[in-house]
Amino acid sequence: MIIARRRARGWDLVDGVEILTQTMTLTAAAPAAAVALAAVRGGEPEDYDVDVVVDLAGTEKKVQEIKDQMLRAQAELQRAATEWRTVAAYLRDVEKLPASDAAVVLGISAGRYSQLVRS
User: Fold this and answer.
1) How far apart are the C-alpha atoms of 5 and 52, rounded to whole Å?
2) With contact defined as beta carbons under 8 Å apart, do 83 and 69 qualify?
3) 3-class state of residue 52 by DSSP
4) What average pLDDT does this structure show over 99-114?
5) Confidence band (pLDDT; 50, 70, 90) for 76?
6) Which class for 11: exposed (0-12), middle (13-18), buried (19 or more C-beta within 10 A)?
7) CA distance 98 to 82
8) What are the domain boundaries of the chain?
9) Sign of CA dihedral 83, 89, 94, 96
10) 16-60 confidence digits (pLDDT tens)
11) C-beta of residue 13 within 8 angstroms of C-beta of residue 2
């Protein structure tokens, strides 16, 4: 694992405690680290599968928390959409409401209601 730490212009790529090399962008970090590892340890850059972890003094943890929160929200939205389609079909199949009335119950347009019961 290579740790990328921000510096004034670019990134220090750290292998353990030593700076292995530097790069201007994170995009170039893994290839640059592979070249440096090959120079230091031997072999070819292709021999090294480099995992770069960004160290921004805790900001990266906040980014991960938000990513996790977004994933949970997307999963919840998918569950809600499934339930929405289920209740739309219930209004049609069990309650036998016409599309226009079911749309009013759901607070949506008749066109949107038709989309829901088709999906």
Assistant:
1) 10
2) no
3) strand
4) 96
5) very high
6) buried
7) 21
8) 2-55, 62-118
9) positive
10) 889 999 999 999 999 999 999 999 999 999 999 999 999 999 999
11) yes
